[in-house]
Protein: Transglutaminase superfamily protein
Organism: Amycolatopsis cihanbeyliensis
Amino acid sequence: MTVATGRSALEAELSLRVTKPGRLALSVAAAESAGVDTERLEIEGPSGSIPAVPPAELPHGTKIHVLDLPPGEVTISYRAERDGGPVEPIPLTEADLITYTRPSRYCPSDRMIGIALADFGRLPDPLSKVRAIVSYVAQRLVYVSGSSRPTDGALDTLLAGEGVCRDFAHLCVTYCRGLDIPARFVSVYAPGLSPMDFHAVFEAAIDGRWYMFDASRLAPRSSMVRIATGRDAADTAFLSTLGSEIDLRTTRVNATVVPATRIEEITDLVALA
Amino acid sequence: MTVATGRSALEAELSLRVTKPGRLALSVAAAESAGVDTERLEIEGPSGSIPAVPPAELPHGTKIHVLDLPPGEVTISYRAERDGGPVEPIPLTEADLITYTRPSRYCPSDRMIGIALADFGRLPDPLSKVRAIVSYVAQRLVYVSGSSRPTDGALDTLLAGEGVCRDFAHLCVTYCRGLDIPARFVSVYAPGLSPMDFHAVFEAAIDGRWYMFDASRLAPRSSMVRIATGRDAADTAFLSTLGSEIDLRTTRVNATVVPATRIEEITDLVALA
Amino acid sequence: MTVATGRSALEAELSLRVTKPGRLALSVAAAESAGVDTERLEIEGPSGSIPAVPPAELPHGTKIHVLDLPPGEVTISYRAERDGGPVEPIPLTEADLITYTRPSRYCPSDRMIGIALADFGRLPDPLSKVRAIVSYVAQRLVYVSGSSRPTDGALDTLLAGEGVCRDFAHLCVTYCRGLDIPARFVSVYAPGLSPMDFHAVFEAAIDGRWYMFDASRLAPRSSMVRIATGRDAADTAFLSTLGSEIDLRTTRVNATVVPATRIEEITDLVALA
Amino acid sequence: MTVATGRSALEAELSLRVTKPGRLALSVAAAESAGVDTERLEIEGPSGSIPAVPPAELPHGTKIHVLDLPPGEVTISYRAERDGGPVEPIPLTEADLITYTRPSRYCPSDRMIGIALADFGRLPDPLSKVRAIVSYVAQRLVYVSGSSRPTDGALDTLLAGEGVCRDFAHLCVTYCRGLDIPARFVSVYAPGLSPMDFHAVFEAAIDGRWYMFDASRLAPRSSMVRIATGRDAADTAFLSTLGSEIDLRTTRVNATVVPATRIEEITDLVALA
């Protein structure tokens, strides 16, 4: 199964004040596999432009820029473009299969095995189970902007019955792993999302391949562009301080695709570059 | 609605070793409302019989014997009998209504409002909601002896999908309170329970009266005899140390009723003396 | 030990919009034991004045007004005055001793026995332990307005290292109970508090009496006036919906005492009327 | 700094019954970096020997054998030997630095930042902080065999004040990450451990290198041999089912080193091969 979309333009602009100078990990660049053809990271500090170092590469082509920032006002802007040619589902490795059935910080699947089995254990195969999980989570949770805290995980989401995109993805991932289905968390640029922001979805391993699902159903999956891939939101935060302290003032994200295509109607099995 | 059962005999025998002398709260006596006609508490310490003081009375006729125990081997035995004449549902007070919609240690209903509404919020009235909760919990949870820890609450039970009688009751109480239905926890003697032990059920307030339910469905409700009534298992533990330290060796419970009657078939609205 | 303060004036004004009509429990009236000599509760609904019913009385003289409110804008205002004559510490009952060593929703002392013993177990007597707990909590926690959520308990506070007055009180109560020292939570009017608001403190049972402590150290204890007394904030919320739904617009509290007296310098053993 | 120990012999034997056939991930082989010179994995199924496939390799040279097991009794035995020549601390990568300051399932450092800063924030540098953390955890926790559950994390350990080796390591890792010090979890063979079993320690990144610490202080660190390295125990379980179901009957571990050397007295900065 292949999906073609048009040409995408991706932008993120962060404006922040560094109150304690130090290192900061930035995760806004499209993943290696996304195949961007132009890409530019610019950092403006209080006394002029700060050169960006090459990114550290984490598993699955995740690129992290580690910046060493001086105190004061800093603006970070990232811009990239890519062609949306056909995408083949990424095969999963034996190591993936092991890593992504394990519980993680915001997806404590070891505590949700009982409820996962009670809710979905009787379904015959992984694909039916994942589809049922996505439907259930889509139906049960209410999307409420600002309803969750950074330290909230899938259990909090299940109980509260509300959340934002990360919470929808965490709950799905946790149910999947509770059923021994490998599942992982992906941050993406999502053309068509409204209001525009960074977005989060999840991938489940079915028949040896990763497929992408989005229980929040807020944007067409076929035109999303992968940023970071990991166990849960702990692996994909767009900004984390490593000793520094900052006030994040504004985050502006933009992502467009021309022409916009949707293939949701044809299939729910979408693979992400 | 009235229920008549036969004559009940209740017994509890605890054998323990006091490793640090001090006070100990014992909650094995039938509640004031149970109307026992003979009752006897005997305590054998390492150097002979220890006289029992009159019980402290907690809300709802709960009787707590506070014992001051010397170090060494102690045997506590309680025996009582009662006639099971007709029982009228106990009216609930305004204070009950407020107290028993509040969250408590093992019934953190403030964290389960979202899930309670999603699961049962659409049902038309309190009685339908409580019946649906009892059915759901009865069906979802597996009774597994020894599966929970004393510090586990309703969230742990929901996630694990298994528990013992206290866990069934805690989960029901939490759902009820999440829907603003007053609900409380009751420890009981339960003739017919197998294996015999202390048992726990819950009461929900419906149309101004308390009715008793038991999602574990392990014993006939009509012949149960109330011991302690409270917010959750924190209020009904049959033994709690207040500064002392003990090793509990054995707990032997026996409860019989002659003739045994079951009214489960007629109605699910049972009131407990 | 007796304490005399001057004449206090207490005021609370709540402005809210009822979005779903129904019952609401209001807990702003001074407790029975506070001995107010004038007291007035006024409720203005969208179509005029709503008569207040007499309060339900909960344990320890806590008064709860249960209101049945129509949809629309409602203003609730409470005013009371009292003379601050000498106060004798309230004796504690056997039932208190049992109830207030139990774990509760926001004071899960059963999970903090280990840490409580490690931190304070070696101190010789209850008074030393309570004093050490209050000092430790006062020193460890940072008061940060808005830092906690209504569902946060003492564990969250301990880990976060910050909180508001309820969190300081919850953490102290939990440590006390973890050491088998009875402790309870009290909401109060606190002349001298800045910014003015409802306040929360705790009481510990020492040598058969209740003494009041405030690890937040934000107002003189000698002029505080008791509102509600209970296991933790679940028992003292100034407003709880019982089926109704509301938007709370503004809360205005005022409490003054003339002449203002402070006895903190003389003793830390303060009893609250 | 280099450390030399003698020749080690490592053995693990697991006896289990497969109740539902399927895949199982085994993590008992010494890590790639441990440089074993002889190594043998044997699997005996109900109808004879089962050939072992080559291990999947996870980050940091962790080797995982994925076995596909038939129903019935299975015995797995692993044997390896190595020379303990001098070991250089392993340099850490930029990716490590990012990954191991993130919170994980059993090390929720994002919830312990406040307490970590309050306890250790004032110390001047990472090495002082890690040493203080190890001392504090060693002193505060009591080693109690069987005291924790597989789902318990560092918060549970902190509160309970007791645990086993994994709990000591989890709590240290969580404190480190709460202070932005990269820290990771390592399962090891530990000659000298008594009673003999698999052991767990942690590594902290100090001045660009990984050093190993063991707050349980149960075995000499200089002769430990690395098995699996990861974020916490979720990454290092010696056995995990991937769809299969098993009853683990017995686990027998043996690890010896000749001659046994201890360098604890000289330095606490030990690097693990």
In short: The first helix of chain B runs from residue 94 to 99.
